[in-house]
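I wish you would study the pair of lines that follows with an eye to the fold:

===
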Amino acid sequence: MKTILIPTDFSATSYQTIDYVIELFKNDHCEFYFLNAYTFDVAGLNAIEMLQADDDWFDEPKQESINKLGELVERHTLKSNNLKHEFNAVSECLKLVDSIKNNIDKLNIDLVILSSSGEKTMTITNQSILAKIRSCPILIVPPQASVCKGLQLTIASNFKQKINTSDIDRFCELLTNTNFKIEILVLENQNSLSNEVASNLEILIIHLKKYIITPIELQYASSPQELKNYAQSHQETVMCVIDKKPDLFRKIGLFKSKVISTMEQLRTNTVLTIHQ
């Protein structure tokens, strides 16, 4: 049984994401956790007003969260005829990033699902989650994403470093009962690959062969525009990008991950982020 965490703000976009993920993993035994993290709106309140607030003021956000999560679980439980799927709810008064981090550990989560806006710039919330959640792969789903009959996972990297396959393994294991194929997109010029890049590619290909029987195809994109063109011509492909281990400057907030700019070029694709 695989465990999948899906944060929701009860928007139409988040509901579309839930439908997509349930369809994506329809052939696998999955336990879905719908997470709603809420906080109290204290803007404009001083300390005395906070102390004077009645119980209803504190209970209202909690009760609203619980009620809407209950409706969400009930809706999917009733309409699902898939005995492989179970649906659960988690409501917490906590910042979203902290709540996701806590539940990854507590529930032994295999995959976190986020909704994207589909806009040119990634939301601050998603940027924060990508920066701070590194113990689990994250799948980011754009609006109106659809699952095609033959799912393809494209792993995009320059392969200058040996790929840590643990997050890729966790995702592929979720698709063990799915007829999917793997393609590798090398973000380098095909005619000038170093020996190190070629070696890292070979190691990864050998490792991935245990998941599929079809050949693993290699494609090349040596510029951001070529990457964007590839993504636009493979709308139903899950694009896998690799986030490098953060250095000191990134840890203290002076720089953002380069994976953010890469993902903004893939905003119309479903994107899997894995971590070195």
DSSP finds ten helices and ten strands in the chain. Residues 148-276 form a domain with the Rossmann fold fold (CATH 3.40.50.620). The chain has a mean pLDDT of 85.
